[in-house]
Each structure stands twice: as structure tokens, then as C-alpha cells.
Amino acid sequence: MIVIKSARELKAMELACRISANVLKLAGTMVEPGVSTWEIDQNIRKYIEKQGAKPSFLGYGDFPASSCISVNNVVIHGIPSKNCILKNGDIVSIDVGAFIDGYHGDNAYTFPCGDVSEEAKRLMDATRESLYEGIKAAQAGKRIGDISSAVQRYVEDRSYSVVRDFVGHGVGANLHEEPSVPNFGTPGRGPRLIPGMTIAIEPMVNLGDYKVKILDDDWTTVTVDGKLSAHFEHTIAITPDGPKILTVADDEVHL
Ligand code: MG
């Protein structure tokens, strides 16, 4: 069932999303050579709890941390660890959500650590841009497939690939709700976009092949070919006036 949010519910979503965006921005400032992903996660947890919110990911399906931090060939669901020390040239995808007043926000961004290669920069730029292509397509009256195909076309035109095994999703009182929001698909297909729907659009884009595998910890998802992957995500609302990005930080700048 796709939940259509009332004006009151959208207000609550806005707060959860704002906290999610603020903490993602804070996490980005910590991405530096020599820092462990565990340290970043600790600060994420502290920040979220200081706002009176809860980290959406902590304990979700027994996930052991407050954020997913996925470095280089790790696509998503990297578990923060004291042993994972960031190095110059890494690309670091941080995915984090906050829960407050009954609602979740969810967002992700891939940050460069120090000086990254041109190849990595181009991949990150294309992935971020594909997210905005998807958002632009999220117009009331259109369908999920219009978002999916906009992302896919943008990515594949640049000879990158979109991950098939993981997709975006509805978000609200639950971190993951219907509908699924794939990053690949056919225009005009799938559920219709209705004002009051809130969805997380989250392209996961690989430099090489789209195939991924999950490691023995049951979370860490890596590219099969070992090449780089990037991940960007916003929670948005479908409104009569067009898509509205909800994961906006206090300075009104969305990443
Ligand atoms: Mg998500």
C-alpha cells in the first residue's frame, strides 16, 4: 500500500528529513585521510540523538550502526568500523536517516576523501546529476517508471551502469515503504505519482558492470568487478507544484 501523507504528516517528515540532511552534511566534513568510518558513525549517532531523534538505521534488520559508510568498491550497506581507515583518494558514500515524531528521513552522498582521481570525480558527478534527473521526472500524474528511466538514461549515456539488486523506496512512518523506486525502467510504467507521496530516490551507479554481491557479514554490498561505485539519495515529496526535496539542511542548501 502506498501511503499518501497529509499536510500534518508532511510537516513531520520535513523535520526528520532536515535532521537527516544536517547530519549527512556534518558527516561529510569528517571525511579525511586517517579517520575511521567508526568515528564518523559515532558522531552521526551523537548528533542525531542530540536533536531528540533516533538513527533510523540502528537496529534496522539488526544493522549494527547509525549509518552505512561504503568506501570505493562498496556499493551500499558498508558497516562502520575502527579498522576502516579512510585514505587519500577514497570515495566515501554515507547513507543516513533520522526518525522523529513518528517519521523517517533518508539521504546519502558520496564524498571525496582528499584528492580523488578524475575518473572517480566524473562517476560521482554523474551519479549526483542522475539523482536530480530522477527528481525532475517526479511530477504528479507521471509514474515511477518515468523517474527510473530518467536516471537510467542519464547514467547509461555516460557508459556507467545502474545497480539492479537495490532500489529506492517510499519513506514515511516506515524507513522502507511502497512503492519501490528502481533506477532502471520504462517511461509510463509503474505506480502513478500522487501529491502526498514521499519517496527516496537513490541511484547507485557503478563504473563498470552493474552486478553486485553481498559479503559474509550479510550487509556489505560490493561490485563484482571490484570497480568504484557511487550513491546519492534524497527524500522528496510529490506536490501539485512539482517535486519538493525534503532532505534540506538548515542553511537551505541541499547537497
Ligand atoms: Mg534509502
Order of helices and strands: HHEEEEEEEHHEEEEEEEEEE
CATH topology: Creatine Amidinohydrolase
- Would you count the extended β strands for me? 17
Largest beta sheet: what is the strand line-up? 10-9-11-16-17
Number of helices: 4
CATH architecture: Alpha-Beta Complex
Largest β-sheet summary: 5 strands, antiparallel
- Percent of sequence in beta strands: 15-25%
Q: Distance between termini?
A: 30 Å
CATH top level assignment: Alpha Beta
Q: Which shape, going by the Cα principal axes?
A: globular
Tally the structural domains. 1
Overall average pLDDT = 97
Low-confidence stretches: none
Query: Structural class, please?
Result: alpha+beta
Bound small molecules, which ones?
A: magnesium ion
Share of helix among residues? 25-40%
Q: Your description of this structure?
A:
With 255 residues, the chain is an alpha+beta fold. The chain is built from four helices and 17 strands. A five-stranded antiparallel sheet has the order 10-9-11-16-17. A three-stranded antiparallel sheet has the order 1-5-6, covered by helices on one side. A hairpin with a 6-residue loop joins strand 13 (212-214) and strand 14. The longest helix has 23 residues, at 7-29. It is globular. The structure holds magnesium ion. Magnesium ion is lined by residues 106, 169, 200, 202, 233.
Question: What's the quick description here?
Answer:
27% of the residues lie in helices and 25% in strands. The protein is of the alpha+beta class.
